[in-house]
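Progress report, Aim 2. The chain analyzed during this reporting quarter is listed below.
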Amino acid sequence: MPAQRSIRIGHVPLFTLIALTSIVCLAISASLVTYYNDNGYPPRGAYKPRIRILLVASVWTTVVSLYLLFGFLFRATSMLFGILAHWIPLTISFILFLIGSASTTALTNGTDCGSVKEGFKRCNIVKGLVIVSWIDTILVFIAWLFVSALAYKARGVLGTRNSTLLDA
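Predicted structure tokens for the chain:
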């Protein structure tokens, strides 16, 4: 059974990193959506829904990660910040980021920003968004694995069920 200290030490930095990368992803995707709404989206490809799904994923993950971070710091033994309250939002975050990151990567994979003509402005920023969104996807997946391992451990300890992260 993991010690409470190790859970507390691992939870705070991981969710702080997730919150920071989500805020960066939120800023980049929001600036791209604003710019492209004013000036028109690139003519080649479906950038509009792909950038917007990353915007939704980053807003969702920012709110959830801050909620879970501060909730865990101040009310760690509450059911509102237990295993299920971590696992479900992290699953949603991971799915949203995976869809957005993979589809935007597939769209920009063969694009060389140095040789792009007038049609695709802010190409480097879109590629930066892809990088940050993949970093966030990986961090959310690591947190999801961490919580899933705790859920498995909480379910299997002496046949009892525990609800909070610290009881796992």
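The chain is about 75% helix and 0% strand. Helices lie at 4-39, 47-74, 83-108, 123-156. These observations will guide the mutagenesis work planned for the next reporting period.
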